[in-house]
Design goal:
With about 180 residues, this protein is of the alpha+beta class. It has helices at about 1-25, 70-85, 85-90, 105-115, 125-130, 170-185; strands spanning about 40-45, 50, 60-65, 95-100, 120, 135, 145, 145-150, 155-160. It starts with a helix and ends with a helix.
Length: about 180
């Protein structure tokens, strides 16, 4: 009988350890300025692999998450980044747009609006989850909330905005980048 109780105690203890480990895994990521940016990878709008490890440290990386290709707010945000690329030139900045859309959808979006920066496909929401970006209900595809991060040359989060105004985001990001440059001088 004591053997049965010991076995039962062991099983219960194991169950508690296992459930606490899975509870830790379920905790959402919360990144704040100063935190190390997560490493992430995806496929570009050209279907090529893109890894943050190949870019972080080379320049400042703007990672903006948006809900869906071809929707009004997302189109406005992307076209404003497109139109402001000349303002980012010479600042060692790379802009990356990320959504749950497919490579094919990104190709159409980029072509339709003549976008001049990289879009990453995140159809499983893995990049969004790595940054703690909220996933919204979207039917068959992953739809992310609209959040923007700036990763500095040291690989740290220099800026986070989880209440992005799509039309003003690129202007705000440019100001933050200029402030970061001024601090380095």
């Amino acid at each position: 009988m004591s053997h049965t109780l010991t076995l039962l105690a062991c099983l219960l203890a194991f169950g508690m350890v296992a459930s606490s480990a899975s509870a830790d895994e379920a905790k959402p990521v919360v990144l704040e300025p100063g935190d190390k940016a997560p490493e992430f990878a995806g496929k570009t709008d050209e279907g090529k692999p893109w890894k943050s490890a190949d870019h972080v440290g080379e320049k400042v990386i703007v990672v903006y998450f948006y809900p869906k290709d071809m929707t009004p707010g997302c189109t406005k945000q992307a076209c404003t980044y497109r139109d402001m690329q000349k303002d980012f030139e010479g600042k060692e900045v790379e802009v990356i747009g990320v959504s749950g859309d497919t490579v094919e959808s990104h190709q159409k979006f980029k072509k339709e609006h003549d976008l001049n920066f990289t879009l990453l496909a995140d159809p499983k929401g893995e990049i969004a989850k790595a940054f703690g970006v909220k996933l919204l209900a979207g039917g068959d595809t992953i739809v992310t909330a609209r959040w923007t991060f700036i990763i500095d040359e040291d690989g740290k989060i220099a800026y986070k905005n989880d209440e992005v105004d799509a039309a003003k985001d690129p202007v705000t990001v440019l100001k933050v980048i200029e402030e970061l440059e001024a601090k380095k001088s």
